[in-house]
Design goal:
By secondary structure, the protein is α+β, with helices and mostly antiparallel strands. Helix content is about 30%, strand content about 30%. The structure holds biotin. Biotin binds next to helix 5, strand 3, strand 5, strand 8 and strand 9.
Length: about 300
C-alpha cells in the first residue's frame, strides 16, 4: 500500500523537494495529510462543490476527497481510514489504474465512470459484512431507479444488472486490528458514461453502461449525489438493525432468486442448484439437485438459465 501512496505523491509533485533521507523520515500522518491535500484539488469531471452543493446527508460524503487518478479508491480509503478520517468519508477518483474487483479480478476504470469508496465505522462483527454489501446494492439500485432506469436488479451478492447485463460492482473490505473490525471500506464502481466498445473483449458481452441503457449521458456528479443520499438512508436502517427492511428491498429487486446457478465456493466447492432465497445474514439459499439446501456466504454464483 505504501508504494501506491508514494507513487501518487510523486506524480502530484508532493515529494519533489525532498531528499531520499528526508523521505524516509516522513511519518504516516504526514503522508496522509499530503494525500488529503491532493484530494481537495480541483478536478475536471467530478466536482466536489457540485456534489456537496445540496447534498442532503448528515455524514455520508460530507468529507469528500476527489482525485484525478489513483491506483484504487479502496486503497486510498483504507490508508486514510487509519489516519482519523470521519465516518462516512468518501474517496472518489476520475480514473483508477489498478482497481480491484471481487475474486482478485481487475476492474476497468476509465474516465466517465463513478469510482468511489466510503469509509464506515459501523461497530459490527464479521457476520454483518455481507449485509453491508447487500445494503449497498439496494442503494445503487434505488439510485438507478431515480435517474430513470426502469428495472435494475441485484445479482447476489453484489452485481447490479440492467436488462441482464452488469452495470455496477461492489467490493466491501474490512480494515482490522487484533481481529476486530476498525473500519469497513465500501467500494462502488458504476459504469456510467462509458463506451462499451472500448472495453476488453471478454467484458463486452456481459456489461452495460447507464449511458447505453438511457440513451443519454447521466452526469456523474448528480449520480454520486443521489447515491450518497440513498446510501445514508440505508445505513441508517442498518445502524438501527432494521435488516428485514433492507432484505425486503433486496428481494424486490433480486435477479438471482428463481434461477438455476452454478455455485463456486472457496476451496473448489462447486455445485449446481436452484436459488430459493436469501437468509437474514445475507447468504444465498440454494437447493441442490439432491434436494438439500446450502447457504452460500461467499463465492461466485453463475446463472445458468
Ligand atoms: C466487482 O468485482 O464486481 C467489484 C468491483 C468493485 C469496483 C470498485 S471501483 C471503486 C472501488 N475501488 C476499487 O479498486 N474497487 C472498487
Amino acid at each position: 500500500m505504501k508504494d501506491e501512496i508514494i507513487k501518487l505523491l510523486k506524480k502530484e509533485n508532493k515529494l519533489s523537494t525532498k531528499t531520499i533521507d528526508e523521505m524516509q523520515k516522513i511519518d504516516v500522518n504526514e503522508f496522509a495529510n499530503m494525500v488529503k491535500e491532493i484530494g481537495k484539488q480541483k478536478t475536471e469531471h467530478i466536482r466536489s462543490e457540485e456534489i456537496l452543493e445540496d447534498l442532503n446527508t448528515e455524514y455520508i460524503g460530507k468529507n469528500l476527497y476527489v482525485f484525478k487518478e489513483v491506483s484504487s479508491t479502496n486503497t486510498i480509503a483504507k490508508f486514510l481510514s487509519t489516519n482519523n478520517v470521519p465516518d462516512g468519508s468518501v474517496i472518489i477518483s476520475e480514473k483508477q489504474t489498478s482497481a480491484r474487483g471481487r475474486s482478485g479480478k481487475v476492474w476497468e476504470s476509465p474516465l466517465g465512470g463513478v469510482w468511489l469508496s466510503i469509509v464506515l465505522n459501523p461497530h459490527v462483527d464479521y457476520s454483518k459484512l455481507p449485509l453491508i454489501t447487500i445494503a449497498t446494492g439496494v442503494a445503487v439500485a434505488k439510485t438507478l431507479e431515480k435517474i430513470g432506469i426502469e428495472n435494475p436488479e441485484i445479482k447476489w451478492p453484489n452485481d447490479i444488472m440492467i436488462n441482464g447485463k452488469k452495470v455496477c460492482g461492489i467490493l466491501t473490505e474490512a480494515v482490522t486490528k487484533f481481529n476486530t473490525i476498525d473500519n469497513v471500506i465500501v467500494g462502488v464502481g458504476i459504469d456510467a458514461n462509458l463506451d462499451i466498445d472500448e472495453f476488453p473483449e471478454e467484458l463486452k458481452i456481459g456489461t452495460t453502461t447507464i449511458e447505453k441503457e438511457l440513451g443519454r449521458k447521466s452526469p456523474e456528479n448528480l449520480l454520486i449525489k443521489i447515491f450518497l443520499e440513498e446510501f445514508e438512508e440505508i445505513c441508517e436502517l442498518f445502524n438501527h438493525s432494521e435488516y428485514e427492511i433492507i432484505l425486503k428491498e433486496w428481494r424486490k429487486r433480486s435477479y438471482s432468486v428463481g434461477k438455476i446457478v452454478e455455485v463456486r465456493e472457496p476451496f473448489n466447492k462447486y455445485y449446481d442448484g436452484y436459488v430459493v432465497g436469501i437468509t437474514k445474514e445475507g447468504a444465498l439459499v440454494v437447493e441442490k439437485i439432491d434436494g438439500t439446501l446450502e447457504k452460500v456466504i461467499s463465492g461466485e454464483c453463475i446463472i445458468k438459465n
